[in-house]
Amino acid sequence: MAVSISVVLLLLIIMVIFLRNGTLKITHAIICMLLGFFLASSSMAPTIHQGLAATAQIVSSLHP
Asked: Is the Membrane keyword given for this protein (predicted)?
């Protein structure tokens, strides 16, 4: 749960930056949001979640 919240916050921050710079139009942001909702309710959602969890685990195990 903590991984998905931090990914959502990161994407939200990136979206706000793009909106302020004018490189992302509000219609594009709405389409991306709708795509996310449709992906979350699809059969691909568990696979995407497992991939993100595995990636987060790999990144958290790295030591600089």
From this structure: yes
DSSP letter (8 states) at residue 6:
H
CA distance 13 to 19: 10
- Position 55, amino acid: T
Residues 3-57: pLDDT tens digits?
Answer: 566 777 777 788 888 888 888 788 888 878 887 888 788 888 888 889 888 988 8
Task: Collect all residues with Cβ–Cβ distance below 8 Å to 48 and sequence separation of at least 6.
Answer: 39
d(CA 7, CA 10): 5
Residue entry with tokens 């139009």: 25
pTM: 0.56
DSSP 22-43: TSS-HHHHHHHHHHHHHHHTST
